[in-house]
Amino acid sequence: MKKQVVRISILQSSKIVTALYVIFGLLYSLIGILMLILGGQNLRTMGIFYIFMPIVMAILGFIFFIIFAALYNFLVKYLGGIEVQIKNIR
């Protein structure tokens, strides 16, 4: 059974994507902590930037997904939506 995504909820979807970016950004924070502990002066400077990556990624992810969802919702009217095939499992 084929289904088509005809609209993406902008705010709800953006919240989910933002949460995912924060989780992925935590990996950068771990790398940043290692840079602070083990690195020289240049690596420590980069480490501080890496520690703030979850915040940066969340803000940018939220903004860019809002743009993506709005563009998708606009273009789906003219081009059709993403098609997925769904199978019922019992």
Q: Secondary-structure map with pairings?
A:
Blueprint lengths: L1 E4 L4 H29 L2 H11 L1 H27 L2 E4 L5
Antiparallel strand pairs: 1-2
Give structural notes.
With 90 residues, the protein is mainly alpha-helical. It contains 3 helices and 2 strands; from the N terminus they run E-H-H-H-E. It has helices at residues 10-38, 41-51, 53-79; strands spanning 2-5, 82-85. It has a two-stranded antiparallel sheet. Helix 1 runs antiparallel to helix 2 and helix 1 (10-38) runs antiparallel to helix 3 (53-79). The longest helix is centred in the N-terminal third of the chain and has 29 residues, at 10-38. The chain is elongated. The protein starts with a strand and ends in a 5-residue tail after the last strand.
The fraction of residues in strands falls at: 5-15%
Q: Assign a percent range to the helix content.
A: over 70%
Q: Spans of 5+ residues with little confidence (pLDDT < 50)?
A: none
State mean pLDDT (0 to 100 scale).
Answer: 91
Radius of gyration: 19 Å
| Major sheet | 2 strands, antiparallel
- Count structural domains: 1
Shape: elongated
Strands of the biggest beta sheet: in what spatial order? 1-2
In whole angstroms, the N-to-C terminal distance is: 15 Å
Number of helices: 3
The structure class reads mainly alpha
Count all strands and give the number: 2
Element string (H = helix, E = strand):
EHHHE
